[in-house]
Amino acid sequence: MKKYSVVVVGMGKRGRHHATAFARDPSFEVAGICDIDARRLDEGAELLGGGVETSADAAALTAALKPDVFCFCTMPHLRETFVRMAVENGARLVAFEKPVADSSAAAMRVRALIAESGVKAVVSHQHRYGAHYARVKALASGGDLGRVHTIYASTPGWMMHMLTHMLDYMRWYNGEAEAEWVMGQAAGRRKLDDNHPSPDYVAGVIQFANGVRGIVESGAGAPDIPGVSKWWGRNRIRVMGDEGFAEVLTNGGWRAVTARGGAQSGPGVMNYDADMPPYVRQMAEWLDDDARPHPCRFESAYKGFEIAMALCRSAVEGGQVALPLTEPGDEIAALRAKLSGKPVIPAHPDHAAEFGL
C-alpha cells in the first residue's frame, strides 16, 4: 500500500483533529507539523508520538519535506497563501478548513490556482459523515419525502464559521442542483471584526435550478433549538416534500414524518472521532483513483461559498443576485461600508451572550 506524506500547518483544535486522523489512516504518514505557537507545536508532536518534523516556518518546512498532502487549518484570509505554497512545492492534494476564502475575489483566485495546477483540493465540510446527516440524505434521495420543494437551514453561528456548512449540506440534500439566484439581508457589525469576519445575522432565499427553494439563516437572529445543549450544535437543516419532511440537528439527532414511514427519529451528534476517519480515508481513495472524487472537493465547496457571498451582495446592493458570480468582490468590506451601527436583535439570550450583546 502506498503511503502519502502529509504536512499539517496550524495545530489548534482542528489541526490536531486532522493530524491525528491522518496519522491513524494506513495510507498516510504525518511527516511534519507547523505552528507559530511553540506550546501548540510541542503538544502536537507529543500527540503524534514523536518522529515528526516540527517548525514555526510553514514555507521552510514544506519546501524541505515536499509532502504529497498539504493540510492547513488557519484563518480565512490565509487560504490563497497556503494553497499557493502547496502548489509550488508539488503537493498532490491540499486539504483545508472552510470557508474557502474571506471574499469572492480571493475565492476566485484560489479556484484559478487549483484549476491551473491540477492539484486536488478538499474542504472540511465533514459533518455529512454523521449518521444522522446521512439518514436525512437517504430519506431525501430515496423518495420518502415525495417531491422536495423546500430546504430550510439555520445556525446561530456567524457566517464565516457556519454558513458554508449549512449551504454545503443543503446542496447535498438537493442533489447538488445549481443555484440560479439569491436575495438576502444582513444586520449587525460586531462580528465584522472577528477572525472569521461576518455580519451578526444574515438571512435569505435561494432559487435552485430544479425549482427547489432554499431558505437560510445564520447568526444572532437565527432561531434557538431547545433541547440541544451545545450552542455551536444548534443547527437545523429541514428537507420538505409533498409527502413528508426530514430534518437533522447537528447535536440533536434526526427526525422525520413521511407518508411511507410515519413519525421517525434517531440519535446523532457531531463527533470528530467518528467523522474525521472517513473524511480522510476518501482523500486516499481520490489520490489512488481519479475516478473517485472526494465528496468535499473544492469545486463543490466553492459553490456554497459563492451563494454566501451572493447573499452578502444582495444585502448591500438590494434585490436579487444572479449566480454564478462573474465579477470578484470584497463582500466583507462592502458590508462594513453599508451596515449601520444599529445592533442586531438576538433571537435568544444564549445568542446575545455569544455576540457580546
Tell me what the structure shows:
The protein is of the alpha/beta class and 357 residues long. The protein folds into two domains: 4-126 and 273-297, Rossmann fold, CATH 3.40.50.720; 130-269 and 305-338, 2-Layer Sandwich (Dihydrodipicolinate Reductase, domain 2). The radius of gyration is 20 Å and the shape is globular. The protein has helices at 13-24, 38-47, 58-65, 79-88, 104-117, 131-141, 159-173, 272-288, 298-317, 331-338, 349-354; strands at 4-9, 28-34, 53-55, 69-72, 93-96, 120-123, 148-155, 179-187, 201-208, 213-219, 236-241, 244-249, 253-258, 262-266, 321-322. Strand 12 and strand 13 (253-258) form a beta hairpin. The relative contact order is 0.15.
How would you concisely characterize the structure shown here?
With 357 residues, this protein is α/β, with parallel strands linked by helices.
